[in-house]
Design brief:
The chain has about 500 residues and is of the alpha/beta class. It has 20 helices and 21 strands. Strand 12, helix 16 and strand 13 form a beta-alpha-beta unit.
Length: about 500
């Protein structure tokens, strides 16, 4: 008796070829709606679903496969005589393979806000068939991914259709329906509950295992949203570790924060130790390195553009663990070829690309905290409120904006000093803001960097004037901070006393 395959897909790529191979291997095809039409037009013999269900598609296609002849055919156990007897008694014929992909809910919500259209693109019969077939994987192959068609045919043709093989597809099927329902629930909560429903689902697709987690005894893996890494992350040399990926994240976000400008960020353990935006990427790297060449040793460099041979030769003068860029030319790769420990990654684009994540979350013991993603608005510095008597000049405003963006992406408490479009000092992750300010200035002094005339940014308000006093002693000329302290007047008075410009952005950017 011929085996039977039920095929009902929204994404019809490759479906004709897949069904042709199934027919060649002795399968009868049962199909629905548009899939049936496409198969018949391609000359593939197929049985329309209502011949099996003995009931017409109804309610504008809302009900077509929700039927005992379909689900009984999928779900009855082949290893139980009572099931086989009942199937014969009811006239239920076995369905041995189910190929389903679901209504395009994601694509629908991306192109329309029409709720009626969105509701109609919530698949009901599809997930039911997927779950039924997955439950009975002992006897049924469930196929939910176009990319798996060739592997399924290979398994059928070469005696690889084992229980273990089908179990793998069962797991993938439940992942598929879980992700689909999660997307719908998240969308509904975003639309009707300000994004904070009783449940919050975070779903990522696995990109790769890392060699281990933060430490060798921990397992680790990378998961992605919207194919961000699949599309924008290419390994040229080495293997990205868990810690590399975390450090890369911080460096890339800072370097990419400057749009099309030639920004370079050097980071260590997720925090910036050098940032510059100059006329060329080579100049930017040289200036960024000056901020803290000691910490840069073994660090991560994010280049918002293309690494050329000339830039690679300069980078190769010290040990760097990771370089990520828009592109790294073959000639530049050759420069690094002999260094065994360096890792090279590119995004295959002219500039660095960051994901468009609208949400942010952090694991805490026993759960996670969830929030809207933080971002510095395009005019946040431009529209900042001048609260001192003296205003900043044009280059000073550019330095302030740069310092402010870096501060927003640096661990709190933090302060960032920028001079002539290069970071000259940074204090981060401190328990006190004045400690952060003083630590940054001490480091700059140790590095022989002149902070005179620099712009200072803080990601949150200064609670006391002591940080302003320390900045004035170092020769800082301009300050930007959110404001909002009960002692703001003292801070303003201090800035006026020292002849500084002081701006309040009125937006806080903590990063804990």
């Amino acid at each position: 008796m011929a085996k039977r395959a039920l095929v009902s897909v929204s994404d019809k790529a490759g479906i004709v070829e897949f069904c042709a191979s199934l027919v060649k291997n002795g399968y009868e095809i049962i199909s629905t709606g548009g899939t049936y039409k496409k198969l018949v037009e391609a000359g593939i013999a197929a049985i329309e679903i209502d011949e099996v269900t003995k009931f017409p598609e109804c309610f504008e296609g809302r009900v077509k496969t929700l039927n005992p002849y379909v689900h009984g055919g999928i779900l009855h156990r082949r290893d139980k005589q009572s099931h086989l007897d009942q199937a014969a008694e009811l006239g239920v014929e076995a369905i041995d393979l189910v190929c389903v992909n679901l209504y395009p809910f994601k694509e629908t919500i991306e192109k329309t806000d029409d709720f009626n259209d969105i509701i109609e693109n919530i698949d009901i019969g599809g997930p039911a068939m997927v779950r039924s077939a997955a439950k009975n994987f002992d006897a049924v192959i469930i196929v939910t991914d176009v990319a798996d068609y060739d592997e399924v045919i290979d398994a059928i043709e070469n005696e690889k259709n084992t229980k273990d093989f089908r179990r793998g597809y069962m797991i993938k099927a439940y992942e598929h329906t879980a992700a689909y329902d999660s997307m719908i629930a998240n969308y509904m909560n975003e639309r009707f509950n300000q994004g904070s429903g009783e449940k919050q689902f975070i779903v990522g697709n696995k990109v790769m295992d890392t060699r281990y987690g933060e430490n060798p005894h921990q397992k680790g893996a990378l998961y992605e949203f919207d194919k961000h890494f699949t599309n924008n992350f290419k390994t040229l040399k080495g293997e990205a570790s868990f810690n590399n990926l975390n450090d890369l994240n911080g460096a890339v976000k800072i370097a990419a924060a400057f749009g099309d400008e030639n920004a370079v960020c050097i980071s260590k353990h997720g925090n910036p130790c050098g940032v510059a935006v100059k006329e060329t990427l080579l100049e930017s790297y040289i200036e960024a390195l000056k901020c803290d060449p000691v910490s840069a040793f073994g660090g991560v460099v994010a280049v918002n553009g293309t690494v050329t041979k000339e830039l690679a030769q300069k980078m190769n003068e010290i040990f760097l663990e990771v370089i990520i860029a828009g592109r790294i030319t073959p000639e530049a790769q050759e420069v690094f070829a002999k260094k065994k420990r360096i890792k090279l990654f590119e995004m295959g684009a002219d500039k660095l690309i960051i994901g468009s994540d609208k949400k942010d979350f952090k694991h805490i013991n026993g759960g996670f905290i969830f929030q809207d993603a933080d971002i510095v608005g395009p005019n946040e510095v431009k529209n900042a409120k001048l609260v001192s008597k003296i205003a900043a000049e044009q280059q000073d405003m550019k330095d302030m904006e740069m310092a402010y963006k870096i501060a927003s992406l640096t661990k709190s408490n933090c302060v960032v000093y920028v001079k002539n479009s290069a970071m000259v000092a940074v204090g981060m992750g401190m328990t006190s803001r004045v400690d952060a300010a003083q630590c940054a200035l001490k480091k700059a002094k140790d590095m022989g960097l002149d902070v005179t005339g620099a712009a200072l940014a803080s990601e949150a308000f200064f609670p006391f004037r002591d940080s302003i006093d320390a900045a004035a002693a170092a020769g800082v000329k301009n300050i930007i901070e959110p404001g909002g302290s009960i002692r703001d007047e003292e801070i303003i008075d201090a800035a006026n006393e020292f002849g500084m410009s002081l701006y309040f952005s009125e937006v806080r950017h903590f990063l804990h």
